[in-house]
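re: ur question from earlier - yeah i can do the single chain one, its not a big deal. heres the input i used so u can compare w yours
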Amino acid sequence: MKKQIIIALAVLGFFPFFTEAQILNHNFEKIDIYYENFSIMEICDVPCENFENRHGSIVQHKDLTDSLAIIKWIGIINRLKKTDTADENYNKRLDTRAKLFLHGINDTISICLDYWNTDICNQRYDTSPELRLELEKMFQKPKPKKT
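and the output i got, formated as tokens:
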């Protein structure tokens, strides 16, 4: 009986790893991040395709090449939870507000996200508050200094 309980606890302990976006096994050298504020309202949903070129004046861009910053972003992405297929937003087209390109030695992974969902290699994940906050912090305009 004790053996069965230990095995059950071990399986449950590893379960979260199977429901998260495991892309940490790649070595990334650079991350390109394109971002449009989540609060901007559009007449129609913005598709992921060519998001980085479509809104040239609105979309902001940053490159990350610092290894610590890349590790931080990979950690945030790896903590995303898979979207429940019963979720009403599961099959809904993304209203893209950010697009990330993770550049590795041999490949590039494209990630699109809106307020609710994140698409990684055609797999749907819930966009976490942590991911939204990190994007907003990265692209917020500095406050003017008081003199």
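Residues 2-139 form one domain. not sure if urs matches, ping me
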